[in-house]
Structures are given as C-alpha cells and as structure tokens.
Amino acid sequence: MEQPAAAPDGYSWQKLDPIQASFLLPAGWHYKAERVDRMLAYFLSEEDIDVKGEFETGLTVNVVHADDAQKKAVATLAMLAQTAGNEVQDAWETQTGVLKGTGARIRKTEKGSDPLVMVVLAIANTKTNALYLLIFESPEARWKKAWEKGEKMLKVFTLDDEY
Fold it and tell me: Hey, what domains does the chain have and what are their CATH numbers?
C-alpha cells in the first residue's frame, strides 16, 4: 500500500491495519473498530461512541468480501436511495484502477427525528471482491460545518487494491 502524504493541518492519518487503508481523522474526533461476522466496521466520529453508545456526526467504513462486489455496491446504494423518507440530492460514479465506486448524497427524514444528511460511497474492488461502504453523516442543522471535514475525509483516503 502506498504511504499517504502528510495529513492536512487539523487532521491525522487513522490507519485501518486489517484492510491496509488510511482515513483522515479530524483533531479531537474518535476512532472505533468492530467486527460483526464477516464485516469489519470502522467509525471516525465527532462523538465518543464508547461514552454515548452512538454518534451523530462522522464516517462509517464497512468492509466485507462478497461475490460480485461491484453489483452489490450498486444494489446497496440503490436500496438506500429508495428507502422511504430518503431523498437523493446528488449521485455520481468514480473509478481508480480496480476500485469502482458509486456515490450519492441523501437527505433522510423520519417522523419524530431531525433530518439527517448522508454522503454514501459504495466502492467495489473488482479484483478481490472487497466491498467498501463509506457513509459520512450529520444532522442537517449541522451539515454545512460537518461537511467541511467530511468532504476531506471522503476525498483523501487510501485503500489497498490488493485487499
């Protein structure tokens, strides 16, 4: 895996060693890793999940190996986009070598809850069938400020194309 360049001011590199990836972690934010069955889950969040039990603003990275990861990536994003109360505000595709991605910005509304904005990026490694689901989310009322960090986190990261 290529070593990332120096992190921008206000960030450090958070290595996700089992998957040989690195993501920007804003100063003062928290990191947590979990394994659920075959899926690895990583959380880079403003709130401390171990204290609060959840977070409102942050990045979730879920990783699993799946047969035909590319189709599952597209299907996962399509399912999120079609969930009741979700409004797709933007969508795009991306590709870097064997890593093919589909992304969307979604506004989620549920009765009795404040609206939530999520940027979801589903990336498939077409060589290894690894499926990465990256979700940056924050309450809509705090979205503009949160996205200043989230945009960097989703634009500047490293994934090992051999994992």
Answer: 11-28+35-158 (3.40.1000.10)
